[in-house]
Design goal:
The chain is α+β, with helices and mostly antiparallel strands. It is 22% helix and 28% strand. A four-stranded antiparallel β-sheet has the order 1-28-27-26, with no helix packed on it. A four-stranded antiparallel β-sheet has the order 2-3-4-5, with no helix packed on it. A four-stranded antiparallel β-sheet has the order 6-7-8-9, with no helix packed on it.
Length: 600
């Protein structure tokens, strides 16, 4: 039996699987396997299209007969895509019915120059549509991305007619209707229209407005403007000065800078603040608060960066156990049983005065004006007169208090009384002028290591790992705070919080009302101390602590964040005291150090 003769298109269809496995299939136009990676470097005509499409069509596409060898709706390959109702079609246009593929001399001539889609000359059942060949055709699946067709506008004459009609309507609208119309129009506008609108409106937007129409401070009353600026921080206030002259004048208002000076972070103690104001105050009583704030800002930056000048005082023969200072002198107690008074006004590092009287280690001191109160391991408390009218060589002990049966470890002076804590597990309240014991507080189960009081309560820390709060007037124990894992070595409190340090190397912050620990500062959570916390002190915004790890650390009281670590001592730091300008610390290395933050 004679085999049927195959048309060229049928031969091509049958040989397509073999061609797809050769480099011939990787033409950038008709790659059927979609694996070609050298489309940019393809310079030769497509071999498949050269086989399929005649080089020079001799007749127009509308005159091609159904029996032509070109691909028509009757061919097997075209039959797969001729049924428009069965397949999804895209971008069918009535102006092109039969599309002729182009010249075969170039691979890109096969693409339609209008749509860049592959359209084959064929007879479509719907004569008003031009159908796209589906992408899953093995021959004409070119892998080209479908392009977005923008909607076509109306004819020009019709557009001008509609435009005149709409403008006529717009002129008949009132202001509210015009506003609503513009809102609706902007809602259906795209990016080109909004961009054009912003460009056209820029020069005329404020054409009829007065000067500085958008300046909120210029049009508000000065009192309200100052109220708004009062909520800004210092950095924002400085930026406001750069806007214009009016903003600069408002931002330099003396009231704003005065309020900044009294914020907690920049507030100074009463004594330090009064001395600073005396320096800046004019003879007419005017205070330039902006200059005052600049000095306070520099001081705070020195604290935050640890930028300070350190002086060292030497003279003790054994470790320092306690320190106190005022404006011009430092007092230190030592294990060598002596008390030394140092002058901060002179440059000499050696002590100017030595007080002898205790027969044991001087464990605690309190400097109250010209009165110095000391406690010792000889179980006594002594009051010393350091009045300026009396020469240092004539300084003497005026009162000795005897009552504790063991070492006097801590004490504080105020309100005409002395409150002391001892290794004998008790606290005692003494009259400062006579040395009479007024009351004894019992409740701790071990040695009392720290004490502080105000007019309402006494707070003490002990080796029994607890903190007790006592009534100042009655001596009754009001509450007991437990949380430390070892002895509580130091405490500091204000009206709402208690800060405590312990042998467990932790610093804890307690809420007095709820009697709960609200924050713990340790090495794991806040890069805390790695040794025993020996002493600490706090004010309105910071905590300063010292420990056996030879360091002093400054913390933020609110956040608990470690601000700076100070390293100068060569042994454990045993004691400290600070104010807004400086820190004084003592150590086992037998030295006293003054950290001055006003100098750098």
């Amino acid at each position: 039996m004679k085999k049927p003769t195959l048309s060229p298109v049928q031969q091509l269809s049958r040989s397509l699987p073999q061609l797809s496995n050769t480099p011939l299939c990787h033409c950038p136009v008709c790659c059927s396997c979609r694996s070609g990676d050298n489309r940019r470097s393809w310079n030769t005509p497509c071999p498949l299209l050269s086989f399929l499409i005649p080089e020079k069509p001799t007749r127009p596409s509308s005159m091609i007969s159904p029996g032509s060898e070109s691909l028509t709706a009757d061919t097997p390959l075209s039959r797969k895509t001729s049924d428009c109702s069965a397949r999804s079609v895209s971008n069918c246009s009535p102006d092109v019915e039969n599309v002729s593929v182009g010249d075969s001399t170039s691979s890109h001539s096969f693409l339609s120059a209008d749509t860049r889609n592959c359209h084959v000359r064929r007879s479509c059942p719907d004569s008003t549509k031009r159908c796209s060949v589906e992408e899953d055709s093995p021959l004409l699946s070119f892998g080209r991305r479908k392009r977005f067709r923008r909607p076509r506008g109306v004819p020009t004459v019709q557009f001008h007619t509609h435009l005149r009609t709409m403008l006529g309507w717009y002129e008949e609208f009132d202001d509210a209707q015009k506003n609503d119309f513009l809102k609706q129009l902007l809602g259906v506008s795209n990016s080109p229209q909004t961009h054009l609108l912003s460009t056209l409106m820029a020069p005329i937007l404020h054409a009829n407005c007065p000067h500085n129409c958008t300046d909120i401070l210029f049009w508000l009353p000065p009192s309200i403007s100052l109220e708004i600026l009062g909520y800004l921080d210092v950095y924002s206030l400085v930026e406001c000065q750069k806007v214009n002259r009016y903003w600069y004048r408002m931002s330099c208002d003396n009231t704003l800078w005065r309020n900044l000076c009294f914020r907690p972070f920049y507030r100074l103690g009463a004594k330090v603040a009064s001395k600073q104001l005396e320096i800046f105050k004019s003879r007419y009583g005017y205070v330039p608060w902006r200059q005052v704030f600049v000095e306070r800002y520099k001081l705070q930056q020195n604290w935050l960066t640890g930028n300070c000048y350190v002086r060292t005082f030497e003279g003790h023969t054994q470790g320092i156990t306690c320190v106190q200072f005022d404006d011009y002198r430092i007092v230190s107690g030592s294990s060598d049983k002596t008390i030394k008074v140092w002058s901060t006004r002179s440059n000499t590092p050696w002590g100017g005065l030595t007080l002898r009287g205790h027969s044991g280690t001087v464990r605690c001191l309190h400097l109250n004006s010209n009165q110095l109160v000391s406690g010792s391991s000889d179980c006594t408390i002594k009051v010393w007169d350091l009045a300026e009218g009396v020469g240092w060589s004539r300084s003497r002990c005026t009162v000795t208090m005897v009552g504790h049966s063991h070492t006097v470890r801590c004490l504080q002076v105020g309100l005409g009384v002395v409150v002391s804590g001892s290794y004998d597990h008790t606290l005692k309240k003494w009259r400062l002028s006579t040395g009479e014991c007024l009351a004894t507080l019992r409740g701790h189960l071990a040695a009392v290591l720290s004490v502080q009081f105000d007019c309402n309560k006494i707070v003490s820390g002990s080796c029994d790992n607890t903190i007790k709060v006592w009534s100042f007037n009655t001596g009754e124990c009001l509450s007991t705070l437990s949380g430390h894992n070892n002895a509580v070595t130091c405490i500091h409190f204000d009206h709402s919080r208690i800060v405590s340090g312990s042998l467990d190397t932790q610093i804890k912050v307690w809420d007095i009302k709820s009697e709960r620990c609200i924050q713990t500062l340790d090495w794991a959570s806040a890069e805390g101390h790695t040794g025993v916390v020996r002493c600490l002190q706090a004010d309105t915004w910071r905590i300063v602590s010292a420990a056996d790890d030879k360091t002093l650390k400054v913390w933020s009281l609110e956040s608990g964040k470690r601000l700076v670590t100070l390293r100068e001592h060569t042994d454990g730091v045993t004691c400290l005291q600070f104010n807004d300008l400086k820190i004084v610390s003592g150590s086992y290395d037998k030295t006293v150090k003054l950290w001055d933050f006003t100098k750098s």
